[in-house]
Amino acid sequence: MSLSSSDRVLLGDVLKRVSRSFYLTLAILPQAVRSQIGLAYLFARAADTIADTGDVDDVVRLQCLQQLKQQFGNEAPAWSDIQSIQEQVIPQLTNPDERRLLEQLEQCFHMYLRLSHADQVEIAQVVSVLIGGMEFDLQKFSMNHEQTVHALAAVKDFEYYTYAVAGCVGEFWTKMTCAHLPGMKGWEESTMSRLGIRYGKGLQMVNILRDIPQDLKNGRCYIPEVLLKQVNLSPAQLLDPSAAQAFRPLFRQLIQEARDHLDQGWQYTMAIPRLEVRLRLACMWPLLIGIRTLQALSMNQQPLDPNQSIKIARRDIYGIVAMTGLTGGCTTVGTAYWGYWRKRII
C-alpha cells in the first residue's frame, strides 16, 4: 500500500508523540509490516486515551469504547459514531498529543480501509481484543470515589487481562510477519503465536509489577485477591509500605513468573532468521529493557513504596540499541547480555 502524506504524518509525528518506546521499535521494523503494525498501535492508543480520560464518566467511556470496537465489525465505519466519540472525549483532553490523535481518528480509518482485506481482518481482531481488555479494566475498576482499593478476584482474571492488553499483540505480530515477510515462511505459525503471547504477557507483567504503588494509589490492584490471601494480605493493606515484608514472597513469585514468560519471548526472538535483522532487533529491544527492569524490581526491597521508582535510564536504553544494532542482532551478543541480567534476578 502506498502511503499518502496524511498517512506519513500519522505514522510519523502523531505516533511518535503518543508512544513511549514503541516508536523506536516501529522505526526498525521491516517496511512490509510497518504500516499495519503502526496503524494497529494508533487505534489501540486512541482506545487507551478514551479509557484513561478520567474527566469523562465511566458509562460514557465504556459507550465510546464499544462504539469504537463496533467500527471494526462493520463493512464500513459509521463516521457519525466516530464524530460522536470525538465530541465526547476531545474537549476533556488536556494532553495536546492525545487530542491530536483523537482528532485524526477518521484519517486512521481511511488508511485502514485502503489495506488488504486480510490485513484489515487481523487489525480488527487485535484491536477488538485490546478494547475488550480496556472494557474489562473499566468495569473491574470503576471511577474510585470511595478511595478504596479494588483487586482482581481470581488468577483467571489476571491471565485474561495480561492476554487482552498485551499477549494478543504477540499473536498479531506473529500473524502479520508470517504473512508479509518471506524469511518467516519456515515458521510454524501456531507454535510461534503461543510464544508470542507469552512474550506480550511477560512485558505486561513487568509493567504491572513496576506500577504497583501508583496503581494502588489510584485504587487498582492487579494482583489477584486469591493470591494476596495466601500471604494473609488484603488489597487495602498494600497501601502501607510496611506490608512489603509480608508481600515480598508473592512479589518474588510473580517476578519469577514474569521471567518465565520473558524466557519464552527470548526463544521467540532467537527463532527469527538472522536475515530478518530488523525484525530481530524490534523484538530484542523491548525484551532486553524488560529483563533489566525485572532485575531492578527483584532488587527492590520496598515494592510498595510510591517513592521507589524503577525505571531504566535512557542512556542504558541507547546502549542496548547500539550494542544490538552494531552487531546486527547477533545471537551470541544478545544472549550473553540477556543471560547476564537474567542471572541477577533474585
Topology:
Elements: H1 5-18, H2 22-28, H3 31-52, H4 58-71, H5 79-89, H6 96-103, H7 105-113, H8 117-140, E1 150-151, H9 155-180, H10 189-210, H11 212-217, E2 220-221, H12 225-230, H13 244-270, H14 277-299, H15 314-326, H16 331-342
Parallel strand pairs: 1-2
Helix pairs in contact: 1-3, 1-6, 2-14, 3-4, 3-7, 3-8, 3-9, 4-5, 4-8, 8-9, 9-10, 10-13, 10-14, 13-14, 14-15, 14-16
Describe this structure in words.
Helix content is 71%, strand content 1%. It is mainly α and 346 residues long. Helix 3 (31-52) packs antiparallel against helix 4, helix 10 runs antiparallel to helix 13 (244-270) and helix 10 packs parallel to helix 14. Strands 1-2 form a two-stranded parallel ribbon. The mean pLDDT is 94.
List the uncertain runs. Answer: none
Please state the average pLDDT score: 94
Proportion of helical residues:
over 70%
Give me the Rg, rounded.
20 Å
Strand pairing plus helix content: what structural class? mainly alpha
Shape from CA axes? globular
Q: DSSP helix count?
A: 16
Instruction: Give the termini distance in whole angstroms.
Output: 48 Å
The biggest sheet amounts to:
2 strands, parallel
Short description:
The chain has 346 residues and is mainly alpha-helical.
Comma- or semicolon-separated keywords:
single chain; 346 residues; mainly alpha; two-stranded parallel sheet; 16 helices; globular
